[in-house]
Amino acid sequence: MMILLACVAYPAIMSRTLLSDSSIDEIHSQWMIKYGRTYANTSEMEKRRAIFKENLEFIEKMNNMNKVNGKNYTLGLDDFSDLTIEEMTSCCGIMDIPSELASSKTVFFNMSIDDIPESVDWRDHGAVTSVKQQGACGGCWAFATIAALEGLWQIRTGGLISLSPQYLIDCDTGSQGCRYGYLDSAFKFATRKHYDAIPTEDTYPYKGVQQTCNDNIVGGAAFDGYQLVSRGDEQQLLQAVAQQPVAAAIAAGHYDFRRFMGSEIYKGECGPSVNHAITIVGYGVSDDGEKYWIIKNSWGINWGDSGYMKLIRGTGSPGDHCNILDYPYYPTLEESIVQPKPHN
Q1: Where is the Cathepsin propeptide inhibitor domain (predicted)?
Q2: Is 276 tagged catalytic?
Q3: DSSP letter, residue 91
Q4: Which residue among 28, 194, 276, 321 is the active-site one?
């Protein structure tokens, strides 16, 4: 079965005027300064301001409604608040899952279900690099894959290296660059076809567009395989995340998810279908007993909680909240592989 995921951003939705024009002008000016936004001419600026106004008014309206309805999260402005849905649409996806992988149980885990810790946060163990910004490029699949690779490399070697999502965007021929991509293809490319040379971010920097593949470059980290967590198996995913960060596909097309701000556990709407990829870097339980996953996104530090989100866990639905249990992947690495080499 082909699962095509689209990292869909959100439309500017009309609502009644909640702020004066002068207030909106001031907020827009401050937003432009914060995000370094400039426009080519007055016409473009007026167009963007109108879109910004619609988004801002919708955010204000929804925050008021959420407060009245007792929802525990807020929406906010981000890097894309002057763009339409057509401009913000980006894609990512998963290829057909190989039958031998989809039907098999993972064998990597060395702990029983009874030994799973109550909470894990790989940020506290130095296994998570800084939050990245994919921008207008639909490269969520590459960023999610890379974050999982970075985490495992640090856990196995003790060295945290920022690896290159641009390399996957340019060189994984099973995906379609900034149009869309597949977690399965990305992991296959990174761990089987080119397991000896995943370049670092410094040597293969992010450009936000697909370029000609540079496949003759010294690698920064090496990997030897990958596994798919059994679909819908929360306990198996907990086992995996207890040992390393895990890439996963989720549904993330709803406006509330896209504009989420804050450190609260997110229980809001996700979207009708799986269309985005993130990395699970931990899990935990709140003081009042609510379970959650810790996800790392690739929408910059101005989304969520400095680029992260606590996503409600254990909802009882088949794929859990936002379908996070549908397609989780993790890389493998034998400790004997320590010296990556250039491609031949």
Answers
A1: 28-88
A2: yes
A3: -
A4: 276
- Distances from the Cα of 142 to the Cαs of 120, 138, 196, 269, 318, in angstroms? 24, 9, 18, 25, 26
Domain that holds residue 46: 21-88
- Report the amino acid identity of residue 316: G
Token pair listed for 208: 């936000």
For residue 192, the 8-state DSSP code is: I
- For the stretch 58-88, pLDDT in tens is 888 878 887 787 777 788 887 778 876 656 5
Which of 156, 226, 163, 223 is closest to 194 using CA atoms? 223
Helix 21-35 vs helix 42-68: crossing angle, to nearest 10: 100
Domain count, the chain: 2
On whether residue 82 sits in a domain, the answer given is yes
- Exposure of 242 in the CB half-sphere (CA atoms within 13 A): 18
pLDDT digits (tens, 9 = 90+) for 284-296: 999 999 999 999 9
In a domain, 60, yes or no: yes
28 is catalytic: no
